[in-house]
Amino acid sequence: MLLLAAAALAYGAGLLRLLRRSGRGRRLLRALAGAFAGGWLALAGAFASPLDGLSEWLFAAHMLQHEALMIVAAPLLVLGRPLAVGLWALPRRLRTALGRLPRAPAAARCWAAASGPLGAWVLHGLALWVWHVPRFFEAALRHPGLHWVQHASFLGSAVLFWWSVLGRGGPQGGAALLSLFTTMVHTAALGALLTLAPALWYPIYLEPAAALGMDPLRDQQVGGLIMWVPAGLAYVLAGLALAWRWLALAGAGAAAAGGAAMTAWRRLLAAGLLAAAALAARGAEPAALVARGAYLARIGGCAACHTDPKGGAPFAGGRPMPSPFGPIHSSNITPDPAHGLGRYTFADFARAMREGRARGDRPLYPAMPYASYAKMDDADLRALFAYLREGVAPQAVPTPPNHLPFPFDQRWALRIWQALFLPRGVYAPRPGRDAAWNRGAYLVQSVGHCGSCHTPRGPGYQEKGYDEGSDQFLTGTVTDRWFATNLTGDPGGGLGRVDARALAELLRTGRGGGSVVWGSMAEEVEETLRHLSEDDARAIARYLKSLPPQRVAGRYDPARAGGRGPADGRYDAATNTAGRAAYHGFCMACHGEDGRGQPPQVPALAGNPSLLGREPQSLVRIVVEGGRGPAVDGAPAPLAMPGFGGTLTDLQIAQALSYVRQSWGNDGAPVTASDVSQVRQRIGR
Prior knowledge:
- The chain has 685 residues and is mainly alpha-helical.
- The chain has a two-stranded antiparallel ribbon.
- A hairpin with a 3-residue loop joins β3 (357-358) and β4 (362-363).
- α23 (500-509) crosses α25.
- The longest helix is centred in the middle third of the chain and has 41 residues, at 216-256.
C-alpha cells in the first residue's frame, strides 16, 4: 500500500508540474491522468482490498486478482505513462540524470529486446504458463516472497506486452494484431484446460475452499472461466480497436496519395468495428503512422541536425549549424513541454515546417530548410509530427543561445526575408511525368531538401531555385567549406555520365559507378541516405537523371585516356611533370597509375565527376585533411585516406591535383598554390 501511495503522489506531483508548464496539452495530460487513475485503482483492488486475502482461499479469487493485473492495470498504466509523468516530480538535475540511464547502450539493448513485439510476447507467455504449473503455483502460495515475485512478473510482463502493442514505438498494425490474437488463443487454452480438467490441479486449495463451502473443482472451473472469457474478450477488443485505427490509417494514406478510396468491403468492415473499438482503450498515435514518421525523420536527417555531436541526446538540439553570419544552434524537437514540441499542436508544427514560424509566431532562421519543407504534404507532416511526439523520448534540454552579430541577431528582420524569398505551396505532381519521377522530385525538393546544400545562394542567403524550373537548381555550391557537387546532367562535373542504377546505389551506400562519397556527404550517407528504401532511391535517381546539364564544368574524354594533357592547350609540361612525380610518390599505390582506383573502396580518378567540378575546394581539403568513405551496413568497410597537409607544400598539392584533373582523359581547370593556401586558411590547417 505504501508503494501505491508513493506512486500516486509522484504521479500527481509530476502531473501538476506538467499542467503548469503546458498550454494546449492540458487535454492530453488529463487523458493520461485518467488512464493512470484507472490502472492505479485496479492495482489497489488487487493488492489492498479483501480480494488479496480471499485469493489465498479460493482459486477463482486468485485468477480474478491476476486478470486485474494483466488485462486491466497493465494497459491502463501503459496509456497513463507513469514513469514519464512521475519523473517530473523530481528535481531537474536528478530528472535529467535518470532520463539518461535508458540511453546507455547496454540498457537500450535490453529494453529493445524486452519491449519489442517478439520479446514482450514471449515474456508475457512464459509468465502466464510457468506460474500456473501446479508446482510453482503452490510454491508461490506457501512463500510470501515468491508470491510477490509471481505478481511482479505478471504485472511487469503484461506492461511490456501492452507497451509493445499500445506504447510509443510499438509494432506495425499487423504485428500488434498478431500479438493480441495469439495471446488470446494461448490464454484461452490455459483457461480451457483449467475449466475442463477432470481433476483438481491445485490441492493446496482443497481445505480452504471446503471451509468456505465451495467445491474445490468447481472453484477451479470458475477460475478457468475467468481466465478464458474476460481475458480473451479484452484481447479481442484491443485487437478490434487497433484494426479500426489501422484500416482508417490505410484509407487516409490512400486518399492523401491521390489513390482510390477504400473498397466497399473495407468500409463495411471498418464500420462494423467502430462500435467495438470505442470500448477498447485508445493508445497513442497509430503505430503505422509513427513508423512512417520515423522513416521520414531518418531520410530527412532530423536527428543529424537536431543532435549535438558532442554527446547530445537524440533530437534535443544544440548542434551548431554553419551560416555566413555565424553558427546557429538547432532546436530541441523532442516532446519536452518546456524546451521542445510538447505544447505544439499539429497546426503549430505545420506552420513551423512550412512558414518558418515557431510556436508564439517567432521567426526561425533559414538554417532550418523550411523553404524545402514547405512542399511537404499534410500526410507526411502528420506522420512526422506523430513520430516526434510519440516515438522520441522527451529531453529537458534548452537550446543554446545564438551569438550573431548585429543586424543578423534581429529575428524580426526574418519576416522580411520570409516575405521575399519563402516559396509557398505543397508539391504538385507534374502532369506528363510518371509516379516514380514525381516521387523522386517530391523527395529531392521537400523531405530531402537537397537544394539546401547543392543550390547556389543569392545575396539574401536564399536558394537561387527550388525546382527544375530554375537553371541554378542543384548546380553545386560551397557549403560548410565543402563543395556540394553539381547534380544536373553536366557530363563533366555533374551526373551526366553516372547511370541511374549506380546513382541509386551511391545514395544508399556511398559507393557506385566507381565513385565513393567523402567529406560531409559521407556523413550524410551514414546518418540519412542509407535509410532510403530501394524504391525511393531509384525514384530520386530517376528524377536527378532527368535534369538537363547546367553550369557545365570540365570534360572527360576516355578516348584521350592515353594522352598526357588536355586538348585545349592548357597543358604545362613542367607543372604536370612535378605533379606527376607527387602523384606517383603519394597517390599511385591506391589509385593506380591509370587512375582507375580499386572500386568500390578506393574511387577511380579517371572520369570522376568530383575531380572535374568548377570549384577545387573539396579536393584540396581532402588532400590536406584526409578522409574516408561512409561506413554503411552491407557495404565494404571504408578505407581511410591519410592527410598530406603536413607532408606536401601548397605548390606540391596544387601540382598533384592539376595532374589528376588533366590526366587519363580528364580535362579540368588547374589548381594553383593560391587556391590551396586559401583553403588551408579557411579550415585552419
